[in-house]
Every structure is written in structure tokens, then in C-alpha cells.
Amino acid sequence: MMGMFQGRLHIWFPPVFGLFIVNRFIGSPLLDDVIGILAMPMLVIAFMGAAGLFRILGGVFTVTGAGMFLYSGLPISELPGMMIATMPLLSFLTVLPWMNSVVRSGRFDRRINDLTKVNASHLGTMYTRSSFSTYLLAMFINLSALSLSQDVLRSSLKHFRKRLRDSFISRVTLRAFTLALLWSPMEIMVAITVDTTGVSYLAFLPWLFLASVSLLVIDWFWNWLLFRRIPNEKHTDDEMKPIVINWRVTAWKMMQLVVALGVFLTAVVTIGNVFSLNFILSVTLVILPFSFGWALIMGRFRSFIHIGWGTWKHRTNHLQNFVVLFLSLALFSESLNETPFLAFLQMPFEAASETPLLILLLVQFTYLALSMIGVHPIATIAILGEILQPLFAVINPLSIGMVLIMGALATATVGTYGVTVTMTAMNTMQNPYRITLRNMPFALLCGSMGTLIGFLLL
């Protein structure tokens, strides 16, 4: 019975998300209750197909949230309304694969990854090229960029010792991936922070972009020095043949991506202002028409539909982990707001309100510590968002937001049980703890730069 549901989540779940979005314009309390009631069996179905770690997290949040709901003494009729608090995030994740698909249908991924394949005299040069191509792709195709770049590098570096190859790949791909997402409007941690703090994405953008580029240059320089002594030697006649790419075509593809991103951001801001929508909903509403329109302009609509349908169906049928996490978090956070326990959690932060730097450091290292035991940054920010809410009146929310974003994304390079580190460990067949140790200095630097910028913005 459950097997039937697990393979057809693309049929059962999207109508609920669609109904939720429609009701943002209608504003019917009755429809909100209906959506909340539908969310309950969704949670059960998703729980059966979720990974073990997400089952544990979801179980803890659900049981704790239910306990706090009972403790609060609220009538049972309030429960459905609590279950929809995180529906915007699930709606966002459901449409995101279409943006991935339009980039793939336009063959941007192939052209940009050609940069990695071009012959380099030493690994220092290869590092900067690989980092740049991964960075550019990750802004649009997210996790797919990580897998794609790692596959290309595994092939390009197959003649090197495994230990060196593993070190190179786990550094360059994870770091570039993290830095690209720091300012991407399609990154869920950025979207959550914008809505949590109430600060415009455009206010965050210049600081996040500055941090991203600064860290990228630092990483390039450091690893160019580290790897420049290792020549990029080939061992067969075939491999000695120079790889030629059409630089004009590649540059044109890059320019198209930059222009597309500018148009996308303009559309998101315009839709948000016209309809007074939060950032997550604005991005969600823009992705589909933007992707379809871009595919039509490129003349790749048939390819886009073919790739997009398959990608969307696969991703939606494997959305169980996030459905469990977000729906259980909705119950937990909404119930927490109705109990005195929230005030107890806020006390240490309020006590430190006269020392803002201490609060920023607490946020940064809370992310890092919890990621080491498998707690997803989304779960962390959901809790921190509630705890820090009163401090937004006395501390610049832009400062706190910088640390919320950069502290969260820094864990993508070191979270031993996280998706990115686990995927890299599987792709390269190396111990995930080695990846964590190797990238820890970078994660500390990334989080600390967020704290520094946040402190300067106070």
C-alpha cells in the first residue's frame, strides 16, 4: 500500500502545494484548515519513505511539538493551521527542478564544464578553473553541479594517486558549491533568512556577493599555491592530445547565464512588491514561467519538457526527507510559540544582547556543532529564528541574517552526515570524516567572515 504512494508522490503532493499557493491570494481560513488536514497524512506517507536520520529528526520534532501543543491547552481545531507554516518551503522545492532542467536543456552545463577539461600545466591552474565552473553551475543547478563537476574531475585526475585526487575534488567542488549558494536567490537558507529577518534580499545581496567573491579569491590563491608544484602529467598518447574548446561559445553561454540571473532577480523583486508576497513565495511563483519562457527563447522547449518532466518527477518522488523535516518543524515551531519554553530558550541570547558579537558567535558555532551530529541547518535555523526574533528590535537583523546564512552554508563543506559531504564521499569512495577534517579550516573561515561582516553592520 505504502509502495503505491511512494512511487506516486508527484501525483499526491503537488496539488496540496498548489492549493496552498492559490489560497495565498484567496485568503480562505477554511482552505487553510483543509490544507493542514491534508498535511497530516502527507507526513505519515513521507515518514515511511524517509531516510533514517530524517526519521529521527522528524520523530523528535513531531513528538516534542505534539507534547507542547497539548501543554499549551490550545483547542484541537488550531492544529491544522499550525501544519501549513512551512508549506512555502515545500512548494519552493517542488518547482526548483524546472530551473535545473532549463539550464541542462540549454547545454550550459556541458559548455561551462569544458573549462575543467582544458589542459592545465599544473593542478593549481586546474583548481581555479574547476572552482569557477562549479561556482557558475551551482547558482542554477544546485546539487547537480556538485555531482557533474566531481564526475569530470574523477576522469581528469584518474592518473593521480587516490589520496591526492580525493583531496583535490573534496576541496574544490564543496567550497565552490558553498560560495555560489551564499547569494543565490534559489538557495533555501537564503530564502528562509530573508523571510525570518524581514530584511529585503536586495539588502543582503551586496554583502553576500562581497563575501562570496572574497572567499572564492582567497580559496583560489591558497590552493593555487598548494597545488602548483604538482604538474598535470598524462600517461598515454591519447591523453596528451590537447583539448580545444570554443572560447567564444563558452563566453556567450556564461553571458546568457548572467543576464538570465539578472532578469530572474528583477522578476522576483517585482512580483514580491506588486503582490506583497514573502521572498520564498515570490521565487516559487517566478521559477515556472521563467523557466518555460527561457526555454522558448532559446528554442529548446521540446528538450526542456523532456528533461524537466523526468527530473521533476524523480525529485518530487524523492521529496520525503524534506516533507518529514518541514512538516514536523511546522508543528514544533508553532507549538513552541504557544508555550513559556520559548522564553527560557531566549533568555541566554537576551542576556547577551548588550554584547552583539557574542550572539553572532553563538549562532555561528551552534550551526557548526549541530551539523557534526547530523542536525540539518534548516532545522537549526527554524529554532534559531524563533529564539532570535525579539533581538531583531535591538540588533540589526541584517547582521544576524548574515551569520544565519553564512554559518548555515559553511556546514555544507563539513557536515559529516549532510547531503553534500555524503554525496562527495560516495562519488569519490572516501571516508566522510576525512572530508570534514580537510574542509574545517574553510568552514571556520566562511562562518567567521559572516560574523565579521555582521559585526561591522551593527
TrEMBL record:
This protein's UniProt keywords: Membrane, Transmembrane, Transmembrane helix
Segments traversing the membrane: 12-31, 37-70, 82-99, 174-194, 200-222, 250-271, 277-297, 318-337, 357-384, 391-419, 439-457
UniProt KW S-adenosyl-L-methionine keyword: no
Protein name: Citrate transporter
Keyword Membrane: yes
Domain of life (superkingdom): Bacteria
